Amino acid sequence: MTATPDLGAPRLASPDLLRSTFRRHAAGVAVITARGAGGPVGFTATSLTSVSAEPPLVSFGIGTGGSSWPAIAEADHVGVHILGEHQGELAATFARSGADRFGARTAWREGPEGVPLLDGVLAWLVCRIVGRVPAGDHRIVLAEVALGDPTGTGRPLLYHQGRFTALRD
Hints:
The protein is built from 3 helices and 12 strands; from the N terminus they run αβββββαβαββββββ. It has helices at 15-22, 69-74, 88-95; strands at residues 27-28, 30-36, 39-45, 49-53, 56-63, 77-82, 108-110, 116-118, 123-135, 138-149, 157-160, 163-166.
């Protein structure tokens, strides 16, 4: 007889089940930025994914109830920033509702296509949005890479168990 793993007590699908499960999944941390009608917008994303090498495509999820969604819904281009382990405070700022994300504490500049680019990141891309796919209370945004810089130094910032953390050796 084959032993079965201890699966615990299964729970029915719910938002809490999904959140509890993905707290156990370590994810890289990115900030997505765009130029909005009222100025720059941005948000922290752990859903960034490489989709295709040819053409170079990425995707990320964004909640339609979030403050950045109206700008992302209309934007032609976005900035994608891979954060380093030294940028936990920056990640928290872009994740916090009502925060002054582009205030004096955030070092940034206007980049190509008017996209806000954050300073000091491990890597950044400017991408042209090619699709917005409805997915529940979110949209999956598909974006084609136009240009970028992968030469920042340091180690990546991670999100795990509801907090920002770093790799351990």
